[in-house]
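Researcher: Batch entry, complex prediction.
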Amino acid sequence: MTVVQFNPLTSTVSPSLWHALTKLKIDVLKLSQDTVPISASYSAGRTVTDRETGTDVPLPSTLTVAGEAFEATTTLPSHSVSALGVLKNFNTIEEFKAADKQALFNDVAQEIWNSIKSSPDPSKDLSRFLLITFADLKKYKFYYWFAFPAFISKPAWEIEESGWQTAEDNLGRGALESIFTSAQSLGGSSTPAFFLARPSSIPSEYETAPLGQYATFFANTAQSSRIVAFLDPSAHPQHPGWPLRNALFYISYLHSLSPHSAQPLRLSVLCLRDSELPGPEKPWKSRFGIVSLPLAPGASAPLEEGGARPAAVGWEKNTLGKLAPRMADLAPMMDPTQLADQAVDLNLKLMRWRILPSLDLERVSSTRCLLLGAGTLGCYVGRGLMAWGVRTITFVDSGRVSFSNPVRQPLFEFEDCLNGGKPKAEAAAAALKRVFPGVNATGHTLSIPMPGHPIPSSPPSLVEQARADVEKLEKLIDEHDVVFLLMDSRESRWLPTLLGKAKGKVVINAALGFDTYLVMRHGARTSEADVPKLGCYYCNDIVAPADSLTDRTLDQMCTVTRPGLASIASSTAVELLVSLLQHPKGNHAPSPKPSQSGSQRDPSAQDAGDESSVLGLVPHQLRGYLAQFNNVLITGAAYERCTGCSEIVISAYEKEGFEMMLKAFNQPGYLEQLTGLDKLHAEGEAALESVDWEEEEGEGEDDF
Amino acid sequence: MYGEGDALGGAVAGWTWADHPMAPGYGHLHRTAFVKERVDPTHPADSDSLLSTDDEWIVDMDDDPSAAPDTQSNTPVLTVQQYIVYSPTFQVPALYFTIHDSSGSPLPLDRLLSTTLFQRPFPMTTTATSSAILLPPPDSSLSEPEDAPAPFPLLSQGDHPILGTPCWYFHPCETSVAVKELMDAREREQEQGRQPGSGEKLEGEALWLRWLKTWFAVLSTVVEMRS
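Model: Structure tokens for the complex:
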């Protein structure tokens, strides 16, 4: 004989319970910690066919709790029976942890014990349970712990060595059908949680009765013919479900009160695991066993009428197998920030699933972008990057939002202009966060020093400020993967061009004319053999950037452009970056060769070879002409004497650091000298001088 | 439905009808299914730092010989609530579902895709090879270009049209395109005598029945539809 081992109940909570609890706490309980009645249900144990291995895996025997738990009357799910319980919600995690759990458990056990002692039919109380909770409504996390008290039987119930077998083998299909149909009419429309069966006077037919009628129903039935049946939530072949434990305890209690209490108790148990009559070819799933309570002298003492409540067990273990509370995290479903996050993510994934399976979205979203300039270009680039799922976007700008900005710079509003205007960089970052809280957007107000704008040597604080600004810019560039040059002057782009090239970062440059624009990527510092290096913004210049801003009129200082141009150029810049990121060679991707038919490129032709990424070409430069609604793709080679990106200049920076930069800012002609451009001018001048212009004969006056 | 071959038997078993709370006669089909994750989850929920407790007074169930040993904790089971709802916009049924673990926590997208609910795990990060899920052609011996496989039905998030609760669903426009292709292909095959059946145009209930069975088949290539 072996001890009967019952399969403990585990809880299966539906998210609707947590929604209902939230509502209950906010509307009804508020700060009250009173216990509240709740109901749950369980049904016959199920197995699931593991499609991969082909075996039938028993599902854990569970008690299902859903949103209807707090309603007084509910319709049970089909083929289930209900279990009643109490819930106690605590207002803080400390109270939850410090609660006297033993006392709460004992209260529920007492309810069951009272019902066993005095109720004519304790069936509905045998599966009483306890649920303690703490709801963290700010983080949408619910801490909880279930307990399913079951009295400990001493001595324990035992079963034959042969264990539990199929009901079909022991009772036969005819008998099972008879029991099943008879039980259905007992419970109204479906099987009750517990019932009794005995053979009727008609051969192979059975009669059933509610559990509470044990004494009278079996008065004249031999122990070997008595069947105790219950709806069994367990699907394990050798372990009946937990509800049987209290049912058997109840029966042993009745037995101890009966005149035959000195005799051992032995009965048949039917573990009903069929929700409906199986079809003609299908087997019954129910199990059958003969259990007995061995006689032990003096063991009946705790079961005396009016005796103290017996010991009980039943706290649920968590998924790690420990006796500890569990936690449900409903943030993905309830936290609006997480919902936004998921929706944006899903949207981008649809693009990949539906159209471009080889799109590497993680590469894009993990690219950290530094935007130098939070004006027209900066605002549109910021939004474009966010649409692609980029999560780290940093703005740098030295200005404040002015009244003319909001109409053309979509991250700003009228309110931002008041009281002198908010600092643009920080305001732009805040605006991005309002659009999508999941973005990591920051802003830094910073002036970028420029060549042609000397820094006065006194007061010395000015030089120190410039040094600090440069250091900050260097650090920002180090911390990002891509730098966008989106400023409103030519010379302000010099320093970041130098730094970006020296530090090996991707630099995307966008600049606007009145109705033309330029979008380009600066060439990488190294390249493969035989592949010409690509140039930067200054590679085609033969003069260093100089002061283009002082002594200009207002319309010459602010870039006046056709308003649509900014969004076109900005979007182009963002798409250029993403195409670059999808290319396996990144910024080393070759620039597309000019097509055979001149500037008109067949849009559907996919260039073979390594020019294209999955999104298409990765051009070096794009010049757009809005008047003609035309784009031209250009490739510019790197110039070895470039004042912005040549090795000469970069080495000087790497050797001398800030001192070299100071010379570039303060001394006109320094950069030309450094790169040797001054000699080029001299050679050019000399060549011009040496040309013999042919003079025409005559008075030298024009003829009209 | 059960009669014609049991190939679809598992897919159509276990559904119950739930009437619309306000419009009688309208409603939806509901079924509860259970799936598992292909990769062992790391149980983030139960290792929450707020939950460490050293209570020793609770009777340790390991000392209780009448409690069966716990063999389930390493294979946690996820509950899927499946709904078949009629989409009035597209005038076809759509499959809606929610999936949560036993604590009631809904699964995020990446974990959802790696459960046994989906027929094969497909990688979330791209590799050089295509990871698109394609529908197999109705009969692999067909070579007509119009029977080229239809693409993956769109997975989206939205509110259940009747219950109003948040659900995942397969966008009906995609699935109905795929079903139509399969039905057309079958008709062609019947005309050519490669499949049983007279090839007459089906009408009324028979047509809808065929449509529904094809719809189950379409979804079954992506979602495990057997109960």
